[in-house]
Amino acid sequence: MKTSIATVSISGEFPEKLAAIAKAGFTGVEIFENDFLTYDASPREVAQMAADHGLDITLFQPFRDFEGMPEPHRARAFDRAQRKFDIMGELGTDLILICSNVSPISLGGIDRAAADFHELGDLAARHGVRVGYEALAWGRHVSDHRDAWEVVRRADHANVGIILDSFHTLSRKIDPNSIRSIPGDKIFIVQLADAPLFDMDLLYWSRHFRNMPGEGDLPVVDFMRAVAATGYTGPLSLEIFNDQFRGGSARALAEDGHRSLVYIMDQVRRLEPDIAITAPDMPDRIHAQGVEFVEFTTAAEDKDDLAALLSTLGFSRSARHRNRDVDLYTQGDIRIVINTDTDSDSFASASYSVHGTNAYAFGIKVENAADALKRAAALGAPTFAEPRQPGEAAVPAIQGVGNGVVYFLDDTPALSGIWDNEFVAVDTKSDTAASAGLTRIDHLAQTTRYDEMLTWLLFYTSIFSTRRTPMVDVVDPGGLVRSQAIESVPEPAFRLTMNGADSRKTFAGKFLAEGFGTSIQHIALATNDIFTTAKQLEARGFQALPISRNYYDDLEARFGLEPEFSDALRAASILYDRDDNGEYFQIYSRTFGEGFFFEIVERRGAYAGYGAMNAPFRIAAQRRLLRPEGMPKS
Predict the structure, then answer these.
(1) Which three-class secondary structure string do you get for 596-617?
(2) 243 φ/ψ sector (left φ>0, alpha ψ -120 to 50, else beta)
C-alpha cells in the first residue's frame, strides 16, 4: 500500500512537514506548489530532502487554467507547462496535476479539451513525465469526474490520465460507482478527503473544511471501493484544506492522516476482497464490551480525599495489590483503582507529577485482548508496557488521549484472573460504606482541546466497532464547548463522550489548563433506581451539585411534569431529560481536584442521549462553586 499526503495538508515549515510525514509512515509526498515556491531551496535540494526522509515525490500540483484557452492564452499555457516539466525533472517526480479550468475566458467542449491534452501529452512524453486531469467540483466546463474521464479517453495518450479526488466527486453527490468503468492504469493518482456535511459554496467548503477520511460525513469508503474495483494499484494520497489543521501539530496531523488511510483500506479490503491494492493485515474492528475499571493516580497524602469521595458514593475498599501501592474499590460491576505507587519508573507516578490527581488509565473488556492490541498497533497507536513483577500479568495496552493508558482485558485466565491473582481481599468489617445501588460505568467523559477532537474520535472509531453520535454545542458562559459521543455497536455497552474546549474560560477549558492537559474529566455511574440511590447517597454524606430552583420551575412547565414529581427531582438535585424513547436522570457530585466530577445516571426505556440540554445548568452550578481566580488551593 503506497501512501502519500500533500504538503498543504499539514502545518509547519517545509522541512518540518517532510519530517512529520516520514515519521508518520507515509511512503510518498505531494509537493504543493506554494510550499515549494515559498521555501528557499532549489528543486534538486528539495528532491534530496525528500529522499533523505525516504519519501517519493508522488505529485507536483496544482497546474491551473490549462485546457480550452483561446489564443494567446493557450500558447502561454503550454509555455507554463514546459517550465513546470523542467522543474519536475529536477524534483524527481513524473506526475503533475492539472485541475479543470475555472477561467471565465476558457472555452468549453470535450473535443477541444481532449485535443489540448493530447498535444500536452506529446510535450510531457518528451520530458519523461505524465499529466493527470482532475475535475474540480466548481470547474467552469468540467466539474464531474465522468467528464474528465471522457476528456482523457478522447485524448488517447499514454502520458495523460485522470486524477480522482473523493471530495470533488462526493461533494457533488455523484455516484462513485461510475468510477468502476475507468481502467485502473489510466488513474494516475487518487486523492482522498472527507468533510462534515454543510450546505455551502463548494469552493469555500473545500478550502476550509476538509478533514481526514473517517473524520467527516462523506461516503469515502464507497468512493474507495469503486476505485479499488478498477484494479488501481497506485498511491493513495491525502489532500486536506482545513483552517483548524493549519495551526495544529504537524506530527499529530500526519499521524492522523496515515491512520485514516490504513483504516479506510482495511474497510475496503473487507468489502472488496479481490482488490489489487495491498492493505495491512489486521483483526477487524474490536467490539468493546464495557469499561472494566478506571484507575486514578494520586499521592499518598492526597489519597484520603479521593477515598472519602468514593465512600460517599457507596464504594468499599475491597482489595489491595500484592506488590504495589494500589487499592481496589468496588460496587456492583464497577471497579475503581487508586494508585499511589511512588516508584520513579512508574507511569502512574509520572502522570501524577504532571497532572496531579487524575484518572490516567482505564480498561476495556474485549473478546480478544491480543487482537485489540494488534489492530491498535497497526493503526499507529503507541503500545504501552511497564516492567512486571513475578506473578503479574502483562496486560495489553496502548497510550491514548492525553497520553493516558487504555488496557485491554478479556476472558483468558491470565487477564480475567487479575483481580483474584494480583489483589488480596481486605477486611471490610470496619468499612461502614454500603452500596448505593450503583451497578456499572455508563460512560466516560474525556475533555480535550477542540483542535484535538477529530484526532481522538478517529483513534477510537478506527480501533473499536463504534458509531459517532451527532455533535452537540454546549453553551458555557466562558465560551462554546463541543461534545460528541462514540458508542459501541450493535449495543452501546461502551460509551465515551469527547468534549472539546477552545477557551480556558470555559469550565472544561479550566480543567485542561489547571490539570495540564487532556484527561478523563468525569465518570458516569449507572443505577437502576436513582431516587433510592439519592437517599442512600445522602445517608453516606454525599454532597450533590446544587441546581437552581429556576431550572426545576422551567422543567415542570417544559415537560408538563406533575408538581410532586418535580419536587422529588429538586429535593434530590436530580436533573431530568426525555425523548421519544425514554427518560434520563442525572445527579452530579461536586468537583474534586481541578474540575473532576462523578455523575450518577438512570436510563429508562431506550433513551440514547446524555442529557445535553442539562449541560448549561450543570456548568452554571459548577461555576458557582469554583475557587475564585487568584485564591490559592487549600
Answers:
(1) EEEEEEEEEECCCCCCHHHHHH
(2) alpha
Per-residue pLDDT at 343? 76
Lowest-confidence pick of 204-218, 314-328, 338-352, 588-602: 338-352
Q: What is the mean pLDDT of residues 131-140?
A: 98
CB 241 within 8 A of CB 210: yes
Distance CA 329, CA 336 (A): 5
Helix (H) / strand (E) element for 119: namely helix 110-127
% of the chain residues with pLDDT over 70: 98
H/E segment holding residue 438: strand 438-449
User: Is the dihedral angle over the CA atoms 122, 123, 127, 128 positive or is it negative?
Assistant: negative
Give the other-Cβ count within 10 Å of 397's Cβ.
Answer: 24
Q: How many CB atoms sit inside 10 A of residue 590's CB?
A: 15
- Sequence ranges of the binding site: 134, 165, 191, 239, 443, 522, 599
Tell me the residue type at 268.
V
From CA 165, how far away is CA 474, in angstroms rounded?
Answer: 34
Q: Among 173, 170, 171, 102, which residue's Cα sits nearest to residue 142?
A: 102
Looking at the DSSP bridge assignments, the partners of residue 468 are: 486
Q: What is the pLDDT of residue 85?
A: 98
Other beta carbons within 10 Å of 615: 21
Q: Which residues pair with 598 in a beta bridge?
A: 523
* Side chain identity, residue 334: I
Kindly report, residue by residue over 567-587, the tens digit of the pLDDT. 999 999 999 999 999 999 999
User: For 450-503, what is each residue's pLDDT tens digit?
Assistant: 999 999 999 999 999 999 999 999 999 999 999 999 999 999 999 999 999 989
Give the three cell numbers for residue 260.
485514516
CA angle 249, 251, 254 (to 5 degrees): 105
Which grid cell is 610? 446524555
The structure's pTM equals 0.93
Helix (H, G, I), strand (E, B) or coil at 79: helix
pLDDT higher than threshold 70 for residue 331: yes
Q: What is the pLDDT of residue 427?
A: 73
pLDDT of residue 433: 58
Question: Which residues participate in the annotated binding site for Mg(2+)?
Answer: 443, 522, 599
Quick check: 98 pLDDT over 90?
A: yes
State how far the Cα of 189 lies from the Cα of 185, in Å rounded to an integer.
Answer: 10
Best CA proximity match to 442, nearest among 306, 599, 622, 589: 599
Distance from C-alpha of 93 to C-alpha of 91, rounded to nearest angstrom: 6
Residue 294's nearest CA partner among 521, 590, 591, 618 is 521
Rounded-to-10 torsion of CA 31, 37, 41, 45: 30
Strands (E), 537-614: 575-578, 582-588, 597-605
Q: How far apart are CA 373 and CA 364, in angstroms?
A: 12
Binding-site residue set for a divalent metal cation = 134, 165, 191, 239
